[in-house]
Write a structure and sequence with these properties.
Blueprint: H1 5-22, E1 56-60, E2 65-66, E3 71-79, E4 85-94, E5 102-104, E6 109-111, E7 117-120, E8 129-135, E9 144-153, E10 163-168, E11 173-174, E12 183-186, E13 189-190, E14 193-198, E15 203-210, E16 215-222, E17 224-228, E18 235-243, E19 246-254
Parallel strand pairs: 2-11, 13-19
Antiparallel strand pairs: 1-3, 3-8, 4-7, 4-9, 5-8, 6-7, 9-10, 12-14, 14-17, 15-16, 15-18, 18-19
Length: about 260
């Protein structure tokens, strides 16, 4: 049987052509933030890596905790680059890769095709600094992490010679900041034990998260309680105390 090699060649070329058509100045509205929910895909799906243009992406204004339906303006900047064309793709996810919250397009940005993130526009590609509006979900979704991929493009009308750098924020927790869930935690720098004193409740649910958003301890605590943390690795952690649907969050450092 004769094989139609021309047909198969066309099928192979189509995805490449689509990348070339959509990968440049007008932004990439697909799922390319590098997040688990995006399958780890980044701008290298269409841009050839290997170049080093010297820029460093920085995601700032990330809250330490989020409140339901509150809008936060993050800033993504690419500092110190030797080129003049830039791009990005960003999303927000839980530890399980579920998209959370909503995004609002602003100057130089537009929604991704799935409405679960933002990317740059044609006018935004000459900027290396974007303000990004994210509105927190209406309910407690647990830790949320922002994932982003950035491009420094050499403006050579092709997909070669560009540089992609991806990254993510530390995990952000919910914080209802109501008095019933208020508590004292001490010491804030501890090597073996943490002490908890609930302000207005006899019992509460305690979760300890590492900065990757993973739950490392979960248990009920009483009004005055002590927690053994000697088995935890050194580093920063977040304690998440909830009473009914109210939540309070504090940080501590494990020596």
């Amino acid at each position: 049987m004769r094989k139609n090699y021309s047909f198969y060649s066309i099928l192979t070329v189509i995805p490449i052509a689509l990348c070339i058509l959509v990968a440049f100045s007008s932004g990439q509205p697909g799922s390319f933030s590098g997040s688990p929910g995006d399958g780890g895909n980044t701008c290298t799906q269409c841009h050839s890596p290997g170049a080093n243009h010297g820029g460093t992406p920085v995601l700032s204004n990330v809250p330490t905790a989020y409140a339901a339906n509150q809008t936060y303006t993050l800033n993504l900047a690419i500092n110190g680059s030797s080129v003049s064309k830039f791009g990005f793709n960003i999303t927000a996810e839980t530890a399980g890769g579920t998209k959370v919250g909503s995004w609002t397009a602003g100057t130089g940005t537009m929604l991704r095709s799935d409405n679960a993130g933002l990317t740059h526009t044609g006018s935004g590609n000459s900027s290396n600094n974007w303000n990004l509006d994210w509105t927190a979900p209406a309910t407690d979704e647990g830790p949320v992490t922002f994932y982003y991929a950035t491009i420094q493009a050499n403006n050579a009308s092709g997909n070669g010679g560009d540089q992609m750098i991806s990254g993510n924020s530390t995990a952000v927790l919910t914080n209802s900041d109501e008095s019933i869930s208020a508590y004292r935690l001490f010491p804030s720098i501890a090597s073996s034990n943490l002490n908890f004193v609930l302000a207005n409740a006899e019992q509460a649910n305690l979760k300890i998260y590492n900065m990757s958003g993973q739950t490392v301890i979960q248990r009920e605590i009483n009004r005055e309680d002590q927690l053994d943390i000697s088995h935890l690795a050194s580093g920063m952690y977040l304690s998440h105390v909830s009473v009914d649907d109210q939540v309070a969050v504090q940080k501590f450092f494990k020596q």
